[in-house]
Amino acid sequence: MALLPLLLFRQGSVIDHEFVFVATMKLDRVSVAGTFNGWNKDADALKPSADGMTWTLDLKLKPGRYLYKLVLNGETWITDPKASQSENDGNGNTNSLLILTPDGYEIPAAKGDGVITKSALKHLTEIPFLDFDRGHLRFTLQARPNDIADVRLSIDGAGSLPMSDRGGDEFFERYSADVPWDRKSDVRYRFILNDGAGPVVFGPRGVTSPGVGNDFVLKAATFKPFIVPDWVEKSVIYQIFPDRFANGDKTNDPPNVQPWNARPTYYDYLGGDVAGVEQHLGYLKDLGVSAVYFNPVFKSPSNHRYQTTDYFQIDPIFGTNDEFINLTHDLRRNGIRTVLDGVFNHTATNFAQFADVVKNGADSQFTHWYTFRSFPVVVGRNPNYLTWNNASSMPKLNYANAETRQFMLRVPDFWQSHADIAGWRLDAANEVASDYWQDFRKTVKGIDPNTWIVGEVWGDGSPWLKGDQWDSVMNYQFRDAVLGFVAKAGNGKPSDLMRKLMTIYFSNAPQASRSMMNLIGSHDTERILTLCNGDRSLAKLAAVIQFTWVGAPSIYYGDELGMEGGKDPDNRRGMAWEFATPHNDLLELYRTLIQIRNSNRALQSGEPIPIVSDDAKQVASFARVLDDNADIVVINRSDRDEDIDLSLNTVVGLPKSTITLEFTDALSGKAYVPTDSTLHLRLTPRSAAVLIPRSGSLIHTRRDRRPVRSALSAMSNAIVK
User: Which residues are catalytic?
Assistant: First the structure.
C-alpha cells in the first residue's frame, strides 16, 4: 500500500474568541455588534461579573477579518479599548478590527512544498459551495491561498478536470468548476489535491488517500435549486425617498411643510408625493431605469416612514391607496417595476396593537406582539421593551408569536394583490428571525415567483442567500470596495478592489450575485460626490464600476445630478431638479452608462474575469463574459495619463484564437485593435474605458472552454442523461 504523503493537517473550522470589556461605571447592558452578526446590537450580549464592572463573552467565529464595536446600554457605540487595531469604514466611522487566523497558518504557505493546511479546506453540499445555475452545477472548494499546486474535481470516478482559482482574500481562496447537469441523475464527486507529494482526496471524511471511499453525494430527488427572478440582473434601479423626490400636489402637504430647498432635519417635511413621481415619469423613462425602489410609503408619524402606523394605508401626505396603485401601473406601462420597502422588524408606537398595550398594559391581548420587560409601558428615553437600535419610537416585533407572524404575512399578500409590486426591500432584515423570512418567501413567491426579495444587511449576506429566504442584498460590501478604491484620496489599491469584488461575487451563488443591489449611496450614507470631496471625476469612476460590475446598479435619487449631502439627514435633501439640464456632465454619463448596460447582455449577465491590477499605475481592469461575448472595463484612478497594455492571451478564460477583434470604447467612441493579442490603451487621468467588441465573438464562456470540455467528455454520460 502506498504511504499517504506527509502533509500538515490542522483541525478547527471555528475559533473561540473572548470579548472582554472593563467598565468605568455601572451599565445595564453591554453587547458586541460587527460584521460577524450583521451589526445587530441585540445578537451577542456580554455577561457581567459579580461586581458588574467586567463584561465577557465567548463567541465562536470562523477564521477571518471582522470589524466590530461594543454597544453600551443599547445606544452608545464605542471601539473596543482592548483591540490592538482599528479601521475606518469609509463613512467616517472607526471600528475595532479583529483578525482570527486559522490553525496552521503560522507556517507560510507555498505551492509545491508538499504541505496542505487542512483547517482551510471546506466544501458543503449546499449553496454557495454547490449550486445549480443556467443548466450547470458549480462545485466550489475553499482552501488556503497559495497552498495547493493542483486542485481537481472527479465525478463518479470517471477522470478529473481542473478547477479554476477564483481568488479570495488573505485567508481563503476558492476553486470552482462547472459541469452540465440534467437535474435527474445523482452525482458522486470528490476533490483531488496535489501539492507535489502525490494526490490525496478531500471528501466528507476529510483528507484521505485516493483508494479510500470518500465521496460527496448530490441527490437529485432532494436537491432544490436557488431560483432568482432573471429580470433583476437586467435592471437599473432608481431609489426614491418619497418625501424628497417631487411635490406635485400642494393640497396634501402637512402643516409644517418646508421650502423645497430647505436644509433637511430629522423631523421636517418637504411634501414629496405620488403626484410628484407621476409628473416625472418621463424623466425616469428617459434616464433608462427599469425599476424604482421606494423608501417606505405606508402611513407613519415620521418623514422617513420607517415607523409604520398602518401597513395597509399609503401615508395621506404622500397620496391615497388608489393613487399609489395607479402609479405602480403607470410605472409598469413605462417599463419600470416597483419595489416596496417592507419594515417588518419594528412598528411605530401608534401602531394599533402597540397602542393597545400602552393603553391596557398587561391586560392587552397584544402583549405577545412585542417583548415587554415590565408594565405599564414606558415610551421614552429608557423604554422597557425591545426596540430597534434603542429607539423608543420603533418597538421591535416578536415573531415567536404566531399572530404577529400571520398578520405581517398579510402585508405582501395585500399589496401584491392590489398593486403592481415586483419586489420587496426588507429593512433591518438581519434582525428578523430567519424562519419568518422562509414563510415570507413562500408567501410572495406563491403570489408571483418573479417577485424579488432583497434584504438589508451591511455585511456578508450569504447566510440568507441559500435559496430559502432572500434573493439578494443591498450590496454595501460592493460600496465599501468601490469607496476604498475611488474615494479614499487615492489610497485604495486596484488589487484590493478586484480581490474584494471577486470575494463578494464568489461568496454567493452566481444567480444571487447577478441580482445584487449594487449601490454607491443610499438614504443611510453620505452622498458619493460628497465622499469624493466634490471631485466629479472620482464620482464618475465610481459610477463606471457600478454599471459594469456584476449586479443591478441602484441609483440614489439625485446622485446622477451631482447632488451632495453629508450624513443623515443631510443626505436627504429635496431633489435638485435645477441640475437636470443637458449641460450636466454627470447626468450625461449616467444616461450613457445606463444605455450601454441596457443594450449589452454581457454587462447585465456576464461572469467577471479579472485582467490587470496595476497598483503602481492605479489601474484596474476586468472582463464580463457571457456565451461568446465579452466586454472589457479599464479604470485609471491615477492623476496622470497612463499607458496600459492588456495581454489578453495570458488571462485565464480568454483563448488566444479568439482575441483578434476590434473593440470600441463605448464612452469615448475610440476604436482599439489588439496587436499580437495585446490591447494598448492610453487613458487620461481619472478616466475609464468600456470596450465592446464590434462584431463576432471575443471569448468562450466557462461552459465552452475547450480544456474543460475535453476533460468532461469521459464523464458526460454519467452526468447528462
Answer: 427, 456
